[in-house]
Amino acid sequence: MDNSICQAYEDEIQSLEEEVKLLTEMYEDCQQESTFFSDKEVLMSIKSFQREFQGEPKGHEFPSDLKAELESLETDLSFLMKFTGIQFTSHSKKTVEKTRNRTVQKHRLSGNCHSFSFQLEFQLLEMKNKEIVSVATTNLSIIMAFGEDSDVSKFVSSTEEQGSLLTFFRSLSSYTEWYEHRRCTFLHFK
Fold first, then answer.
1. What is the rounded distance in angstroms from the CA atom of residue 95 to the CA atom of residue 104?
2. Beta partners for 118?
3. Residue 69 lies in a domain
4. Which stretch of DSSP H or E encloses residue 4?
5. Is residue 136 a contact partner of residue 164, using CB atoms and an 8 Å limit?
6. Could you count the other beta carbons within 10 Å of the beta carbon of residue 172?
């Protein structure tokens, strides 16, 4: 067989294996999260939910209000995606540790910003101390395909060390926007 056909099949097999791995992790995460609650707690939650929606709504919005709020949120999300150029294509969350005062969740995000794709893995550490809740990002890992651009690889390394998601997304949006402008300019002169 032709090498390009074999490579295409191998790429497809690898893609399917990754998808199976991701789905397996998502299933295990759902199973793990469902074991945190006893049958008694689940039944109490269901009864509480039923009482809340069978009686009069006490400060809760009606479904039509929820639909309007959802449409508003979708509009806001669409605006932010157009404004920043960042579009998320997938997200997965796995609870690694959950105690009374501490929760650790592992997140995986993938998406693209203009013409560049990215993948992030990080852990969110949520600590509760009385009424104060603090959240920190740890173990940030960024995977991007920028080729041999040393400035970008230095930026990614420093961002991983700092664990700053906000800095990453701000800088990514700005860099990719100007990269697109440069690319279009150079195409114009060719």
1. 6
2. 111, 144
3. no
4. helix 3-34
5. no
6. 25
97 CB-near residues (< 8 Å, 6+ apart): 103, 104
- 66 located within any domain: no
**CA-based radius of gyration for the chain:** 22
Contact in structure between 152 and 175 (CB atoms under 8 Å):
yes
Same domain, 183 and 90: yes
137, 146, 141, 153: which is closest to 113 by C-alpha?
A: 146
H or E segment to which residue 100 belongs: none
DSSP 30: H
Read off the DSSP letter of residue 59. Answer: S
Question: Cβ(136)–Cβ(107) under 8 Å?
Answer: no
Contact 136, 119 (CB under 8 A): no
The whole model's pTM is what?
0.56
The answer as to whether 121 is a domain residue is: yes
One domain, residues 37 and 93: no
Q: Specify whether 116 is located in the same domain as 156.
A: yes
Q: Are residues 21 and 91 in the same domain?
A: no
> pLDDT tens digits for 167-183?
888 888 888 888 888 88
75-88 pLDDT per residue, tens: 888 888 888 888 88
Nearest Cα neighbor of 121 from 147, 149, 90 is 90
90 lies in which domain range?
83-189
- Report whether 95 contacts 105 (CB < 8 A): yes
